[in-house]
Amino acid sequence: MEVKSAAATPLVASSGPEVVSLCSFEVNGGAFAIDLRRVREILRPTKITAVPKAPAFLEGVIDLRGAVLPVVDLRKRLGRPQPAADPLNRLVLAWVGRREIGLLVDRVAGVLRLPRTELLPAPDLWLEQGARLFVGACHDPGGGLVLLLNLRALLESSEPVDVDALRRLSTERVP
Description:
Elements: E1 19-27, E2 30-35, E3 39-43, E4 58-64, E5 67-73, H1 74-77, E6 90-96, E7 99-105, E8 107-115, E9 120-121, H2 124-128, E10 134-139, E11 145-149, H3 151-156, H4 163-171
Parallel strand pairs: 2-11, 5-7
Antiparallel strand pairs: 1-2, 1-8, 3-6, 4-5, 6-7, 9-10, 10-11
């Protein structure tokens, strides 16, 4: 799936309930998403140049049409095992403020469009776990849980994250 630009996709529908569009992708079997408005394009991975003394999750940088962009390997950033390269791997180019970064993911699942009311807030316990990387969750059409990433926090901190524990916290119900 090659997506050239999200600029033409409105985040909010013109009538009816407010609809949110999310770019969903997989990282080591886990489902994640970011706001589609942040996505510039999705590419097949290209040659990545390592950066000495960079955080472990910073895979390196790429030259994209004359612009040097940092590439974050989400598997490393989220503390997931490193599978071999796969033809479905993609590089999601996304805006974080005025900076553009590449996110290395296992595969892009597609676009989720859902009413804003279906977005689930991050549980308070997530903050205790140091998981500022997530701003909430939603359900995919198959009923699975999709974690919504906080891209700014991805770059600001290098603390490890236990994604499995966070996923359990988000699905536990308090009587």
